[in-house]
Structures are given as C-alpha cells and as structure tokens.
Amino acid sequence: DAEPAADDAAAPAAEPAPAYIAPPEESSITLDAPVPTPPFWGTQVWRDFDPVTLHEYVNPLALYGGQFRVRRRAEETRNDWWQRVETEVMPGVERVLARAQREGIFAPAAKVGFFPAAGDGNDVIVYHPDGRERLRFTFPRQPSGRMLCLADFFRRPDDPDRDVLGVSLVTLGDKIRAYEQDLIAADRYTDYLYFHGLAVESTEALAEVVHQRLRQLWGIAGADAPTPDGLFRQQYQGARYSFGYPACPDLDDQALLFELLEPAELGVTLSEEFMLIPEVSTSAIVIHHPAARYFSVGGE
What is the pTM of this model? Predict the structure, then answer.
C-alpha cells in the first residue's frame, strides 16, 4: 500500500463509532423480586449527619492501603500490618481529623430521591409520578458473557408493577479545598496528605451511610451486614453505581442525574467535563434488585 500524503498523515484519524450491542432476547436477570415501596416520591435534603459517627464508616483498607500506600509487606501478617498502621500513620490522621472536627471543616449533606422507573432495552426510563416519561439513561451493555446492562435490573414498561430508581448525591461541603490550601501555604505537607486522603474516603463513607439509610427507608435493609466492615464487602441488597465506574462509565450521565436531583442547594455543581464540584462529592443511582452487583461493561 502507498504511504499517505503528508497532509493526510497529519490529520487525526476519525474515531470509529462504538458498536451497538443489542440486548439479549432473554436477560439473565429475573424480574420476579418484589418492588419495594419508597417512603416518598421526589427528593429530600439530609443534613443530620454526625461527622464523628461518619468516621466509623471510613474503609481502613481504602484509607491506609489505598490513599496512604501503606502496603502489607510479604512477611507481615494482617495483625502486623495493622500494628504498623497504628504506630506510623494513625496518630497523624487522628490529629488532622480532630482539628477538622473542632473547626467544623466537614459539612456533610446529601440530596436523595426516589422515582418511578422501568428498563427498556439498554435504557432506564424515569417517569413522573403521574406516569409521564421524564428522561432516559442509556447504559452500555457487556459485549460478551452475561451481556449485562443496568437496565436489566428494572421491570419492563408494560409491567403492571412500576419499578423504582433511587438516586443520591453527597458532599462534605466547600470548606475542604480552602483548608487544604491553608495547609499547603503553611508548608504542612504531611498534614495535607493525611487530610486529603481522609476527606476522599470520608466522602465515600458518607455515600455508604446514605445508601444504608435509603435501604432502611425502602424496607430492604434486612440483609444488611451488622458492621461497617460487612457493608464494605457489599453485604446488603442491591447496589449503588457511580458514573465513571465500570458498569456506567459515561460521566456525562451526571447531567441527567442533576436534572432529577437539582442539587444546587447543596452547593454542588458540574464542571464542563461533568466532574462534581466540590471534589469531595459523589453521586450514584441506587438499584434495589437483589441480583444487582458490580460488573464491568468491558466483560466479567
């Protein structure tokens, strides 16, 4: 083959259109599980969170092993690793946590909602309470294996029992960034690293607490693990899925979530790249189906 001309070589190659993967005729997800009745339709704002209690839901493996890279050495037992964490890292984390709580840096808040919904192919249709279609999320489907899509966990539009979608957005507030900048300006880089990692994982802890409360209000918390450690292992009914992660990788779906939740009263906005501002915020759709678990649309 002849080499392309110089002008052609300089031009960016056109990206191929993503292949459409049709839904399987029969989903592997059965839809005979009862549809729980939500405690309300629409949205609510929650601000009654105790920052001290919230810290109990911070995943220590994610905090110390993930954020702070305190890896377990080959010769260490789990107890040895934990003793090293307690000696080398935990005092610094507890110091910055105590100051943040004393100065009111954390301002946890959430906006949550329940909406009638149905699954239609790769779409999750969200309805107004009177039955009119409001909007649609279109989710990707696994190209092989079980060929799962998030829409599979919802009853179909013609089902007499209308399904329910839960949604949530949580934030620790707008004081975090300014506090981090103050730590950097004071050359307190170690405290900054401790605080930043703690703030990131505290955001996830808040999302975990909100999801637990949603399950309780929804009446599906009977399968909940009795301790936070069990919740970290997804020992509960259903799942929450955040945009940008393997089952729903399209961040621009945040715009549709914002249409449902209208979270401006929390001080949360979207960047041009559909990232949440402040950074210490996270959103999710919440699915009640007992078979809902995490999966990747890149395959299982």
Answer: 0.87
